[in-house]
Batch of 2 targets.
Target 1
Amino acid sequence: MLKIWKQAWRKGHDSVPPPPRQGSDQEAQLASADSEGTSSPSIDVASPQVDNVSGPVLSAAGRKRALSSQSSTSEASFPSKRSKAIHATAPGQPQLSPDGPRHPSEVVVLYEPPSKLTFTALYKQLREVDQEEKYSHRHFSAALHVLLDMGSCASDLVWRRALSDIDASISLAYNEDEEHAKEYIALFETREIIKNWVYTMPNLDSSSRGLNVTPKFLKLVQILQSCRPHEDSFKGVVFVHRRAIALVMAELLRLLDITGLRPQVLIGKDIHNDFLSQNEIFHNFQMGTYNLIIATKWAEDLEIPLASVVIRYDLFDSQLSYALCRARTCGQGSHLVHMMQRGSDSHRRRLLQVTQLDEATQTWSDSVVQSPEGPIPPVTMLDSRDPYLSDSEDEGDPTSYIKDPTTGGRIRIQDATGIINRFAASVSAVGRDPSGLFRFETASVSLKSPPQFLCTVTLPPGPPVPPVSGLPSTSRAHARRTACYRMCNELFERGLLGPQLFPRSSLKTIGQKRVLDVSQDLVTTISSQLTAESKQTGVHGYPRKKPGFWENTIGLEPCTLYPTVIFVRKRESYGPLILLTRAPLPRMSSLRLFDSGFRIAVDLKPGAKFSVDAERLHDLHRYTIRVYRSIVNKPLNCRLEEVPYFLAPLKPSWPGLNRPQTDRWHMDEIVDDIPWDLVKLAASNWVTELPTENLEDSLEDAIIQDRWIEYTRRYYALRVRRDLTPLSKPMDSPREAKYGSFLEYCKDRRKGFEGLRDCNQPLIEVDRVLPVLNRLNPASKNPPNPNKHPAKYLIPELCARFTISASTFRTALLLPSIMRRIDDMLLVTELNGALFDHSIQEHQLHAAISTPSACAEFDYERLELLGDAYLKYLSSIYLFVTNPSQHEGALHSARLRIISNKALFLNAESIGLAPYIQAKPLVPKQWSPPNFTVLPPLPPKVHGLRREAGPSTDTCASLGPCHSGDPADGVKAKDHVMHEGPDAEKDSQEGESEAAKPATEEPTPQKSKKDDQNLQWWAIADVVEAIIGAAYITGGSETALNASKALRITVPSVDQWSDFARKALAPPPDVTTRLRPGTVEGIENIVGHKLNRPHILAQALTHASIQGYEMTCYQRLEFLGDAVWTSVSPSVVIRHIYERDASLSPGALTLLKSAMVSNQALGAICIEVGLDEYLMFESFELANKIRTYSENLKRKRDTEYELAKTENRAPGQYWIDTSPPKALSDVVESVIGAIFISDNFSPEGAQRFFDKLLKPFYDKHITLHTLSHHPTKTLFEVLQAHGCQQFEVTREYEPTEEFPHGMLCNVVIHDIILASAMGTTAAYASKQAAIYALDAIEGDPDFMTRACDCRVRTQAKKTHKKALKQMLASLQEQSEDQQAVEDAIIIVDGDDDGMIAEVGDNIQNDNVYVPPDFLL
């Protein structure tokens, strides 16, 4: 049971107080004890009882309920207890009571927050020697943490303990190298300062000015003193988080010389050789040599002998830690003490989350206490993903860990037990093994040696993983650790251990920049902070972050490969392709690509890992190079050691293709379904001779080319045309149209053509292979036909067959888009884990970091609208609660400073968010796989080589040998020479332009700036808002609040939503105006909700014109209500239109929102529902205005209803041209604010108000069709908000029988007629056409995405213009004569698609390269 200790320091025993109060108000008791103050307890361990203690009790039953209330409660108490004598037991073996699991008494001890701390004089002097903390960073960090946790005296002791480490560093730095001279001098001076320093003794007198310990450590000393450590029955364990704190705490306690206290430190093994082994420590602790162990979290699951008192100096991170600490107590009569800082909402939240156990978790926790063979944890088990890294270092072997390549998180052996518990909890609860998660076996090695334990981990049904056993050990805990570590490794090798289960990376933030200082009085300080942190706004350049996955896996040996099958769903012409990685890719959902606006679904299916030998790895390496060279038509190359992933074809008969995506456990074997013969063929040759016999069979799933060179046009073979021969006249082939036959074309156009062996052979009908395209953009279209007509028929005798099949190559052409999307998802997972603990749905987070300029199917704009509303909601409530005396104007100003774009931009900068933002579209011509480079061109002599034999004697075109015969050296330079056969065309100019470039021996890397992206500062702020919107959609207000805190939104001292209710100060009833009789009942009938605090309604209805009540008028509530109903309280305005109009663009949603939250709409609602009748004011002018407005509004409403009925349409915004008194719109918002506060900041009442009154009103009067009665204007605003610039409404005179003088109006968007309408007048027809067009846009959400590419073209123009300016500027710097430079640029139209830029003789010697894309 959990108790809150009150003032209790007397040793005597008073009368027994009344029994404790329990129930739903237990959290309120905790808050009450927190606010009233708590001193240290007196714990009698010799005869376990509680002396003079009173306070609220949190029982086990209370922990099963969610505690929410924070109201004040009367003080409760509990009687003294005396338990049975504690019997000595073997280490780690609990003595269970016959009634069931042992339950210690749980105590919460509150300590005061530390006063303002300053660096010690020693720290400052050492900092002057090492100003950047470069040479003793670890000790500076430890001294700082100890200062915060224990005080200045303990902080100085850190340096005294560091002397041995500094001496060792000095010996390493002492050499003749000048680079180490500064380090040696700094370390030497540091050592001399520490040696000669006079250290002060600890002062525990809280009334003294010389107090040099923190209230937290002082409270610990008082707890230990009250436990009577001089008595034999005392055995205590103190758990801390950091190794440095454990070491200094033991030393400080020895200096204090507390009677009978004999402390010993227990940290990671083999860290310091002067420490006793764990077994010796456990034995001495059991025998009484030591009676206090100070342990780090590393030792939580070890078999520490049972203790009478276990103290958590730092709070728990998880319910597993909580259960393990309970297991270290003696049971009844022992105590588990939680130390919590008074007034800390975060401490209070963590404590309640960990100790509140539902029935299943309580049963599991009791089983952990009772036996090391605990059952499988329930799904509701709360566990932390924070790794245990004391002082940022591992306490074990730093090389022994499992690293997640996506997030960089590492699983060490001490983390493994928690990971396995979490994994088992995540598996379905159906069919769990009742024998438990761990099973131990005992084996005796010899009679003299102690028994050894062997632990076996058995997972619940689901994952196809057999039980895994660990190493034998004399300790059950160590045996369990090794078994769990091996199981983690097995799960990781099988691709079943996702990034969500790995501990966080050691860096808690993705950036290292300074964050804005936080102040409670935001109204007066935020402005100055932003001014101090001011940064020039505008466009900022950032490098696009590359996924860490490829960098983290590049060093792994590729002897074991992990397949991911790329499968285009329901497209038989696309063959499956395997992506082979060095580590398992995280599970990803299906991708969506686009082909001329139509979706292509691509599944990513994992397969079973397999091993490869050197020969197959060599073939995979060269096959991968072949594929990438073919799709980008560039001489790409990469050494085997640097290839991030490999490619391989797959047989369509692989059974895994038919397995559903929901099957997360099963992975089919794949190695035997890889056609290794085709891999070897393509690895060695780019083409083979096309057999003319059985031509139909030879052309099945084939790509052919009519030139024997590597980089040329390729064609899909459609069919054999036996009705055509080379002598036939080209009737339907534009390329040969001016010739009498195909043979004549060859004679005229092909260089060195000597004729055909068979002039009667059939022709092959072909279709050209399109270049690689951006398939991520829904508006992307296939490129138009080139200026030169492609071939439609080819002569078989002159053709060669490409060694990669047509179906495989179609899928390969999608690789740039697929790999870009995979990279995006890897970045999203990395960001989600680094900042948000994987709490945001990844597809929502992906949209949130994608700008419109990325030209993807989604962007942040809709989420930004939602996040902006949530930030307004959050900041308004925060300011309303924390600034109870500020008026509405000051709150408005403070809110603007919190949520302004500039503040959000600075927050994003402080955490390094910008590199994760996706702002550039995929440019296929610039794309290349990671670590691949373009080989340099060869000298002109090499380009002039000719093949000595034609296709009749040379059956293949080979990649050629490798450097030094080593496959890892990659493809030799001559492999990419574009050889010309005897049938090469006369006008073929391949290689000539490239020959002008000088050859180098090493490949030249791709330009490093091609991934740089320019971002407007306000776009970065929009991404911040979009991320918060994504978090809200994922998990509601709590998840969005956590995301806001992670993004450093300035809302300090608020950790969960219930904190607002605890901190709020509502005005008492006696300071507000008196309500008229029946007001409360009337308002409750209007809103449909019962008010819990009716007196707040008086403030909501009080106008500022009433004398004497200016400070309690409705203005503050109006400020709050405006945020509640126009923002994100569930299903209010923004959420309502976000869900109601899910297909609309953000611009259209903004139009609807503006219409709904306008003062005109609110004034009409106030009159419509009758709230104006309850408004209290003292102004005749206001009364006349309200009466006049009400009469005019009702008259216009009746007129609009009659007209709408006549025209058979919905009524529109009849209030649009009438301005209401502002008091009417204000009172609507203030009433909503009053309901929100009355419900303890819960949106339930506001939701009912919206559902009953506002939602029907909006659905009836405010839609796209009714906005301002002008659907044509609305349509144009929607299109412009989408970025469309090519639209019009055409009008034609077209008489019909129905309309003899009819007009036909068409809404045309990008040459597509979206809607048409006929009418007797052009105005009526255009209005109807606009209505039909709005209907079409709402009904087809993807139409604008498919049809409109205005944003893409606008972005391309800007990019092209900027690139051209940069190029010309670069050329100007290298040439004295600008005119000569411009004349030197020659555009040459080559045979292949695209433009080739050559540089004239006057700048050729300067190696100036003009990218082709600049000159388009």
Target 2
Amino acid sequence: MFEVGTSRQGLPQSDVDPLLNDEHVNYVASLGDDHSTADADNANLYNDSDPPYTSLAFEWLEMTMSAAEEPEEETDYHQEVMERLSAGLPLYERVEWVTEEEAMIEQSEDEDETITQAYSELDNGYSMSGAQSSRTNSHPSTDCPTYPWPSKSMFLTDLLFSSPRLRFSRAQKYAILNWAKELGAKDVPDLRQLERCHERIKKSVGDPTTKYNSTTGDVFYLNDIGKAIAKDFANPLLRPDMQFFPEDAGDGMSQAWHGDKWLFDAPGEALTPMVEVKEKHFYIDELVRCSDNQYFIPQRFIICSDDQQSEKTLNAIGRNVTKTPNGFVVDSKESLIAVSSFEIPFIELSKRSSYPGFAEESRSFAEKMPNPVRQVAKGRVVYSVPLIIFMDDVSGNVSKQWNKHYNIYMSNGSLPREALDKEFCTRFVTTSPHVPPMELMRGVKSSIEKAFKEGIVSYDYQTRKEVLLRPFALFFPGDNPMQAELCSHSGLQSNYFCRACKVGGTKEHKASNTGFMELFNAGAPRQAAETAKEVHQQVLLSTKSGGTEKVEEHMRNTGVKDAITSPIINSVLRKGIELRKKDPGRSSAKLAAHEKALLEEVNKKRGFETMNPLFDLLSVDVHRDTPTEILHTVLLGVVKYFWGQTVVLLDKAKCFETTFRARLSSFDSEGLNIPKVPADYICRHHGSLIGKHFKSLAQLMSFLIYDLVPKNVVDAWNLIGRLVVLLWHTEIESVEAYITTLQTTIQDFLNITAQCAPSILLTKPKFHFLVHLPEYIQRFGPALLFSTERYESFNAVFRLSCILSNRHSPSRDSSITFAYQDIIKHIATGGWWYSESDQRWIHAGHRVTDHIIHHAEYAKLLGLNVMSKGFTGKVMLQRSESSSTSKQKKPSPKRWDTTLTFIASGNLCQNPEELFYTAKCLMAENGDNVKVGSYAIFQNPQKQSSEIGGSLLLGRVIEILAAVNTANKASFIAIKLLKFKDTRHSILNVPTLLLTDTTLVTTSEDVLCAVNVQHDCSLGKCHISRYVPIRHEGEETANTQPLVLHSDDEHFTLNIHSLHNYRLIRDVTPAQLRNFESHSLNVEELRNSAAAQVRSRRKKQQEERRIKDAAKKGELRALKDLDVKYHRNQNDCDKVHPDPDNASEEPQIQRQESRSHMLLGQASNQEDAIIAKQGIMPVNAQTQDQPPGNSAAQSIGASSNNLPMTQSGHTTATTSFWNPYLPPLALPSQAPPLVGNVYPYGSIGYYAPIPVSSLPQQYSAPGNPYASFHAQANPGRGAMPQPPNAGAKRPFNSTEDSQPSPQAQGQPNPSKRRPG
């Protein structure tokens, strides 16, 4: 409808812009353009929920999309607008957003609350009969197959427009609906009808968005946590995988319910409080009679499983109870019994006349009966649901402009890790660009506590009954700065940098042998109660005299800083300063009065109660429940640091862009399950890599640099590869053995780091954080469970919810958007919800759920992972060589006796003339695509034979055959066997392989997975001698890239750093090659030596700094003496050499010419910075009189923002960088003196403010300040040269020079020290 050159309101831009006065702009209704940033011109002033005004163009657009008939005559809208303006009518009018169809519906609603329409079932669902197909029933019955949508078209449109990763602006929605109507689509809904359907569905399911007011007075919105987990319970996709009891899996561990916190550390009142046995409810802390007439009090429930058996039993941990004449006596020891033996609950026992009560010594147990949760449950089964809560700061813009928002997401901890990694299971909780993060966490805490106390009624999809849910916090993943704030810790740059322990101290202590050794182990653990006391102490210190210094010192000595209390402390400190200014004095009475007033201020602000909300949250210990996160600590931490150091070494060796780049381009990534390694990108942007790049580099780096860097750096990369594999374990078979191996690997890595770069252990706390990883894995399960990659990925969904907002209420808009997206996901996947109108639990119609099942593209829109269709042995045939098209055609079949498989096996096929197709890849048992020429792990086809190896073998696939009658499945696979050598590689410390002549033939069911095998280039001395054309835009170019040419095809190495299939790689490796030896024989000597290196380097740096500071002070004194003496004789200079252009100016202004700001120059060696006066300007261009060899001055002024220099009243090509704040630094004096109109100073020349010949005689004598200053800076260089243009005078270099200084006006200098 709109043509090029029109405005957003559909009018010609030239006609609209002059008419938009302030009054008109206030009525502009934006169409909801996709803004990455909001500015004055493109601000979305339109509120979608209640548009009070609209433009004519918007009204015309609404008319074209309504069901009204097209006008018979074409209307000239531009002429109509001009007529309105000439008549004095406003350009924008108030309109009623009700179409004729909607008016009819509203009228019928007024007459009768229920709309009765005749539905005719069509292929695309229910649609209304009649001429206009868009007239849909706004209140369909629950029997409608597309319920809660009145038609399939309404359902599909709503599903499309509510997709998390496919967002549409309002204008785009209009365009899509109009496009569908123009093409003659049936039953296309109007946008207003769709919005009304939104509101009706949201009202039916329940709106979770709630408004919160923070203690700082800010407002934000939060989606209720209880309603979110209630949807999980009522969803058929999620409920079957949930587990609500901790599990003791023996030696193994794979899920959160296997961790020690859920098993042992979480308080019993936070866990699931009851079990149901034979439709009877048994609660913790209540007396139970068992089937053997024994009595028992359960205190927590636990699932026990045996590694040898798949059957799991639910047991209770508690205390046996003995019935005595004095009543029940409770045993002091804990016992374990099966809950299946429970027979009579306490609620029945207490009603019996034979119930004796409890003895006096066991009275404390009786006081807990009955469990108070029983009354809240009202006969429902009760479950406790653990929550994983993530908080981070993220930009709300798609563009590079930073628009900081604090976001909180949540996951249901009762789901397995495989489900948690799905985007579908990540729940948005809240966001705000202006509310502090801990205030948001206070709102989350309030939502959790309310849901835990009152309970959440939900529908159990499995039992088809109502249940009561109680959420509790399990742990808080996040990056290190955010976790430090959650722990009320002062951050990574503090002396005590660890949020989990008290390791650290001053720089001197950490550089000592004792302090350096402490960094390799966990220190004394921090406790939440102790941290709360430290925060309380800081509040008290803020009321004391000198409170600022005392609070800062306390923070330095403890590493404690609470984000909630800090504003209160700062306010009290400011109040104290004001009080002491008004009533100065140091008497004890005044100090006591001030302290009393400040204590009143603290109590007024509730400073002692207002602190970290997580300190008293049930089941939370912030220092133990903020686990070290592997994305930011490992990949974006230690791996990134070593990558940067390695690049420096490769650059110095001049092999980064040559040998390393060629090896990286030649690397074979088959079997790693990663995309093709982007060698060009990694080398070109080596300083801007992200997590996925570092994950790839950790798996391949040691194979590329084995002879390019020192041996200890190669060893470090080998340990990084081992460490990453251990931390990315999805399942741990033996926790004890795994923890031991992980601790050893971490210690070896820290030791090798101490050899490579010992100082980095002091400056980068992430190395120490590795020490805590084994503890967190034991507490919560494998490290992938508390990884933040799933939440970092969800940030992209959040940004899409921001850019289509008017930015007036970002927290509210995002919360409403995510709330409705969750509702759509819940309904479309078959979830149940309670209908207030029907007073029962209902679900969507069958056509809604069936559509998601049979249409993978819609499932992807909802964030569900869609598995590709395939089966073990599925093949992809070789493309026919005769085919010139891109469409695949089957190749010509081969006779059995002409294949490589026949040569290896012979009689596997009875008919030698049987035909087979050759395939290029097949699908292994685990879903990997195994190509011909790649390597695979397969089961030994000779099951009982040990001549060729064990049950698992490793080999290269040389041929894949598929029978003609079953062309889509592999029939035979020929594999050339790889044999393990007896020892590990001497440099890479990985198993070595030898390609044998033995060829085995197996079936597709025996191929287990693909594996990454690398050629042993260090043994073969492979070099770069192969060049291939570079492809751009899908075409080969004339440019080539070098690749490595392998010297043989026999010697290989097994990449044990592969994250993919790590278990099968370990199993196929012989036992004697699996164990690793520690790299450090004498650990204490190594660490002490590293600490000595740190101290030596720090001492050297301090000495260099001391020399520079001393030289700086000497320079300042010399410049000050020079400037003072110059001012004393400035009048004589003006009389000797008057300036004809400035004859009318006052001498005071002329004297200001020498008063100047500082200019920064850069020496030729890029190390020494200098400070000069503007009147003594650095030279960066060699003049004809300047002696050769002094290149130091030529490098000055390289910046594009440099100011032009002046010489003899003319602007020269020489420039100098303007920096009025940098203090002066000393430079070495090695360059020969400069001549011409410059004076020597160190290795840099300066323009003189007044030529020497212009000064009185006493200033050209040997005792003049210029000569003495030259002699001090350049001893032994002789007398100062005279400039040839002695009569010239430098004009003003800037307008700022024309302002007289305070000294020139006779005023004292306000500060002897320059700012900065």
